[in-house]
Design goal:
Length: 460
């Protein structure tokens, strides 16, 4: 196998705050004067397109805070709060059914959180029944994924998932080292994760993903080597290796992490290098800046075919779908809009109590937004950009329209991050790790947004 040619020093020298581009425009650009009326208008246009649907359900509860977590979470142990949430999900689905054509084909369903498996088996069964009774056209081979906390996962829940059609699961691990687990306030011995993976596989799940994080307190090369080796004994089909984004000014719980124990940039780089080499040697191919998958995995095949796309869950092979999110904080995405639900339960419930879609902000995309979204998402997903393909879709002259941007990325070409030639931009292996630094050159909003320091995490 050819070794990857990554210039780690160059990679480190580019460490700077940059958006992760799970959307374009990015969430800070969503407008609070974009209301449920705009949403209804965009839904009507989406119906007219007859595009297939991808459905996301946000299940926000967790028992206690993991200090590294950047998700929108409600901490509780009250069962009645979860039952009440299911009632409101039902109300939201019934309300949105008045505008969104639920008979459209559903090709993808995803449960995220929070901890979806913090809902018990009976509650999960109720949620799945709610979805299946409202959406009559869920495809037999639809991808149905659930994020699972191994500390809260039982055979009864797996039974419900198997009957409900769940075929992909993603386990949150982060790191197996006890000292790191203690520092991040998440005690999860290896045996618990191993048992959870066994339950999933025995329950018929074919695709198992493991989530790891590098850059956490007390991590070092030796301890992370052990985490990598233990992860591989679970034979994951996919691995996501996230760079810990320390943004304590945005997430209060991150202030509880011992900042003095965070590994420095050089140590993080060594850990990343080790992880990439370990996974590549184990047959897990690198996809973009933070994902790995086996060569027969849909993600890797989509990357080879140019069909991979970025979305709020990371990467998707279903770029042909319009995404509709349900539940607190969830985001919907159509060809020309983004809409986000309220992030707190009282506001979410209050909107539904008055029969209003619980949208608190969003954005309609104009021509330039859609064009730049295409350019940025293509770079983020397939790490190259064919000018002719963009020209034929948007009827522009690429070199003319993006003359300043092409001039700006000339410096990145000099640094070996990309090559421009044959009317294409192609990221190098180092450039793939820094793809968001490349993509941000095409972001119109960044030019006017001042300091990025407090808005986005660093790329290294
Ligand atoms: S990492 Fe997962 S389990 Fe921990 S607080 Fe965040 S959502 Fe909850």
């Amino acid at each position: 196998m050819a070794a990857m040619r990554i210039d780690y020093e160059k990679f480190a020298s580019y460490s700077a705050p940059a958006p992760r581009y799970t959307s374009y425009p990015t969430a800070p650009e969503f407008r609070s004067d974009w209301t449920e009326l705009d949403f209804a208008e965009r839904i009507a246009a989406s119906n007219a397109s007859k595009r297939a649907l991808s459905l996301y359900f946000h299940l926000p509860f967790c028992r206690s805070a993991c200090y590294f977590c950047g998700c929108n979470v409600v901490y509780t142990s009250k069962e009645e709060l979860k039952d009440r949430y299911i009632d409101y999900l039902k109300r939201e689905i019934e309300l949105i059914a008045k505008t969104l054509d639920f008979k459209r084909e559903v090709r993808q369903i995803h449960f995220g959180g929070g901890t979806p498996t913090f809902f018990n088996a009976a509650q999960l069964e109720k949620i799945i029944a709610l979805i299946r009774s409202n959406f009559p056209n869920i495809q037999k081979d639809a991808e149905f994924g659930v994020e699972i906390d191994p500390r809260f996962f039982t055979r009864d829940q797996m039974k419900v998932f198997a009957q409900g059609g769940v075929n992909r699961v993603s386990f949150g691990v982060q790191d197996f080292a006890p000292k790191v687990q203690e520092a991040m306030h998440r005690i999860q011995p290896f045996s618990i994760t191993q048992e959870a993976v066994n339950i999933a596989r025995e329950g018929g799940i074919k695709s198992v993903n493991i989530d790891l994080i590098y850059g956490l307190p007390f991590q070092n090369l030796e301890s992370f080597k052990e985490t990598l080796n233990l992860s591989l004994t679970l034979s994951p089909d996919r691995v996501a290796l996230f760079n810990y984004a320390h943004v304590p000014w945005l997430k209060k719980t991150m202030r509880k992490l011992d900042e003095t124990a965070l590994p420095n940039a050089a140590e993080k780089l060594k850990i990343l290098k080790l992880a990439i080499e370990t996974f590549e040697n184990a047959g897990l191919k690198m996809i973009g800046m933070d994902h790995f998958a086996r060569s027969n995995d849909e993600l890797y095949i989509a990357l080879q075919n140019g069909a991979l796309r970025r979305n709020f869950q990371g990467y998707t092979t279903h770029s042909e779908c319009d995404l509709f999110g349900f539940g607190v904080t969830s985001i919907s995405e159509g060809v020309d809009f983004y809409a986000q639900n309220f992030r707190d339960l009282p506001s979410y419930e209050a909107a539904l109590d008055t029969q209003k879609a619980p949208v608190f902000r969003g954005i309609s995309l104009d021509f330039d937004d859609r064009l730049r979204k295409k350019v940025i998402m293509t770079l983020m997903s397939v790490f190259s950009l064919d000018f002719a393909a963009i020209e034929s879709e948007f009827a522009i002259d690429f070199e003319e329209y993006f003359a300043p941007e092409l001039a700006a990325i000339g410096a990145l070409e000099d640094d070996g991050l990309l090559a421009i030639g044959d009317r294409k931009i192609v990221a190098s292996e180092t450039g793939r790790l820094l793809i968001r630094n490349i993509a941000m050159n095409f972001d119109k909003y960044l030019k006017n947004s001042g300091s990025l320091e407090r808005r986005f995490s660093k790329s290294v």
